[in-house]
Amino acid sequence: MSWKEAECHKILSYFPMLRDNRKNIQYLKSYELNRIREVIDDGRLSLRDKCIMLLLLYTGLRSSDIAALKMESIDWAGDRILVRQQKTDEALILPLSPVVGNSIYDYLSMERPNTNSNRLFLTSTSHNPPLASASISAIVAKVFAVAGIRQNPGDRKGTHIFRHNLASSLLSKGVPGPVIAQTLGHSTPESLEPYLRADFAHLKECSISIEDFPLNKGVLSV
């Protein structure tokens, strides 16, 4: 089949470049969040693991950033969490909410080993080395298993789903994109684009009625 190659390439150049494929963002559903909170609150977790789960839920911090937190990362006087992001080496300041702050205090006062280490989270093994990022992922996997959620093949079980959950939650509440990007430590608001596809509350506002489109009888029948 013949076609005017030059003209066609010129026309195509006016169209925006699109990714070959786009991943669907997995998010935590309301019943999953309820079960996670039940596990956090029922006393089955250590104070350290409870604290880590609350940090994931309320801050969306990466596991590497939680593992790297130091004692001085918690600004008690200013109610802030001071983070040096491991991925970007950029500084990030987050509010220290009461629920997270109280959990950190309980861990420090009642469970954390008495050592000279300045890392916030330590293991309970000999010599109490700092907790690794992989250990935080293992804590999340354990909580999911106890809660009986996300156990099917293909279900996302890592810590990153909490970042997705926080972004989606803030979007659904109408928080501006730049504020969400800053909260997650993203350099630009454009990085939120994948999360927009899970913002069902606002996507529904963009839906177009099909009443004016001709359809064959029975197309929408149940």
Mean pLDDT metric = 83
Q: What is the element string, with H for helices and E for strands? A: HHHHEEEHHHHHH
* Helical residue percent band: 40-55%
Question: Unreliable runs, pLDDT <50, ≥5 residues?
Answer: none
Which CATH class? Mainly Alpha
- What portion of the residues fall into strands of 2 or more residues? 5-15%
Main β-sheet, in a few words? 3 strands, antiparallel
Task: Provide the spatial order of strands within the biggest beta sheet.
Answer: 1-2-3
User: What count of structural domains?
Assistant: 1
Distance between the termini: 43 Å
List keywords for this structure.
elongated; hpI Integrase, Chain A; mainly alpha; 44% helix; single chain; three-stranded antiparallel β-sheet; 222 residues
Question: Would you write up a description of this structure?
Answer:
The chain is 44% helix and 5% strand. By secondary structure, it is mostly helical. It has a three-stranded antiparallel sheet, with no helix packed on it. The relative contact order is 0.13. The longest helix is centred in the middle third of the chain and has 15 residues, at 133-147. The chain is built from ten helices and three strands. The model has no long low-confidence stretch (mean pLDDT 83). It has a single domain, classed as hpI Integrase, Chain A (Orthogonal Bundle). The protein has helices spanning 5-12, 30-41, 47-59, 63-67, 98-110, 133-147, 160-172, 177-184, 193-196, 200-205; strands at residues 74-75, 80-84, 91-95.
